Amino acid sequence: MLFVATNILGTQNRYDQDELSLRLIDMLSLPKTEVIRAWREAAHNQSMVKLMLDLLGHDIRNYSDANLKILELIRLKHPNLESSLLEDLADMRRIEQQSIDLVDNILTLGRIQGAELEREPVNLFEMFNTAMERTTQSHGDVTLIVSGEEALKGITVRCHPLLEMVFYNILSNMAKHRRQGCQSVHVDIIVQTEGDSVKVVLIDDGPGISDEDKISVFDSLKKRPRHKRFGLYLVKAIQNQLGCEIWIENRPDSPEDHTAGTAFHLRFPLSENKV
Question: What global pTM score does this model have?
Answer without folding.
Answer: 0.71
